[in-house]
Amino acid sequence: MRKYELQFDDESIKDTIHSNTLNRNDKLFNLIRLLNSMNENHIISIDGSWGSGKTFFIKQLMYLKSNHNDCAFIKQDIHDTITEFDKKYILVYYNAWENDDHNDPLESIIYNLLNILPKYSDTFIDGTELFDLIKKSWMNFIEVSSLGIVKTDDIKEMKTFSDLSDSVNTIEEKKNAVLTLLSHITRHKRILLIIDELDRCKPDFAVKLIETIKHFYDSPKMSTIFVTNNNQLSKTIKKFYGNEFDGYSYLNKIYDAVIPLHSDNIEQYSKKYLDIYHSTNLPEDVSIFLFKHYNFSYRECNKYMSMYRLIEPYIQWHGKFPQHNSNIDISCIFVPISIALKVKDIYLYEKFIQNDGSDILKELFDDDKLKSENSNLYRWFCEIFKVKEGMELSNRVANRYKEIFISDNTYDYGKYPYMEAISMLGNLIHIEDDK
Predict the structure, then answer these.
(1) Superfamily grouping for domain 10-124+186-261
(2) Residue 160, SS3?
């Protein structure tokens, strides 16, 4: 089964920026302008639902910072803006979900920060001075082998930084140690800390990390971006503090700005990355119709398409199964609907395949809405379901559905081979033999 996912390699990221496939270039460039204007500590939220491409968006930001000189297609004024961004910031990417087994987010973030410093060796104090600074602070958790900026002779004499640590007992001492470290590792640059996947973390770690950023990382030389699903994160916070706690209000007090991301360029995305050639194949037209109707995220589109391609040889009514011509409504409409429901809402899917989905279809094939939004598809549906003057498409679809989907366990695999394939994806869809 083919997997449809945007890759995080440079070529794929550059291509999406060049073609603006996700229609996010303006948002990306405006974020860079916003960051360029900052000279104080700020916390920004990149907010989007599951599968909306939040991480890919931030990877585009990271790519532009490092590779803008290779992007000749970018206009000169935008190029100048990105150049300013590159000169102004050291960028630190931190995947919170991959680190939520750590006991202390404060130490975990400092570890990641120190780990990338050799890349920016021309911007901070030399290794000896940095080592002495760490020696005076609280860095008792980092293994020497993870930090390549300490002298070899020093490495031989110790196993961990705990051998060097001076005890830091109070919160204020820890905070001062962090601020001192941040103020010394750069000269004229600022740090942009990007925290990704926070909504997937264990509740206690997520809350500790947010509190850590709020209390410890308030240096004017640092700004933070949280890349997260705030709806889910607010529920995570509520689990930690209790059902009466208002997670949204808590987050609103943390963030200085929220940039929402939506999967609002589904048709262009589908054509370019899902091998859908619009207006050439009815099942694929129906697929895009379903993506839009159910407000699919990009990841949900990918999942749907992987399932669709698996059973595609069975549902091509114009291809190797000529008998499908008499069952075009099944192969090109009801099967895609089944897959869409399975991806979007398993409960609706169960209801649909158990012959209890008439209300789902009446809402999906609402005559007035469909006429106004996609008149061509509406005409095709009317032809397929033999809608005559005075009839409503939604009623005809619901009636045909009742004829096809029955509750017993008998249907002909030979006549409807595509049903065997869809059964591999989960529950069987039972079809009545045409008389």
Answers:
(1) P-loop containing nucleotide triphosphate hydrolases (3.40.50.300)
(2) strand
The strand pairing partners of 47, in sequence order, are 228, 260
Q: Is the pTM of this model over 0.70?
A: yes
How distant, in Å, are the alpha carbons of 121, 142, 144, 146, 165 from that of 155?
A: 19, 12, 6, 11, 14
Q: Which has the minimum average pLDDT: 115-124, 244-253, 398-407?
A: 115-124
For residue 106, give Cα distances in angstroms to 90, 121, 134, 144, 230.
Answer: 19, 23, 14, 18, 22
202 Cβ contact partners less than 8 Å away, ≥ 6 residues apart: 100
| Tokens at 346, concatenated | 């398993």
Angstrom distance (rounded) from CA 399 to CA 350: 19
Query: Which residues pair with residue 196 across a beta bridge?
Result: 95, 227
Helix, strand, coil content of the chain in percent (nearest 5): 60, 10, 35
Q: Which helix (H) or strand (E) holds 184?
A: helix 171-185
Pairing outcome for strands 43-48 and 89-95: unpaired
Q: What is the largest CA-CA distance in the chain?
A: 90
197-212 pLDDT tens trace: 998 888 888 998 998 8
Q: What is the tens place of the pLDDT at every residue in 209-243?
A: 998 888 777 788 889 999 999 999 999 999 899 88
Per DSSP, the three-state class of 280 is coil
| Domain ranges in the chain with CATH number 3.40.50.300 | 10-124+186-261
Nearest to 165 by CA among 123, 195, 137: 137
Q: Kindly calculate the radius of gyration of the chain based on its CA atoms and give it in whole angstroms.
A: 28
State the alpha helices, DSSP H only, in 186-294: 203-216, 230-241, 247-254, 266-273, 282-293
**Cβ(206)–Cβ(96) below 8 Å:** yes
H helix or E strand, kind and range, residue 47: strand 43-48
Given a contact cutoff of 8 angstroms between Cβ atoms, the answer to whether 357 and 351 are in contact is: yes
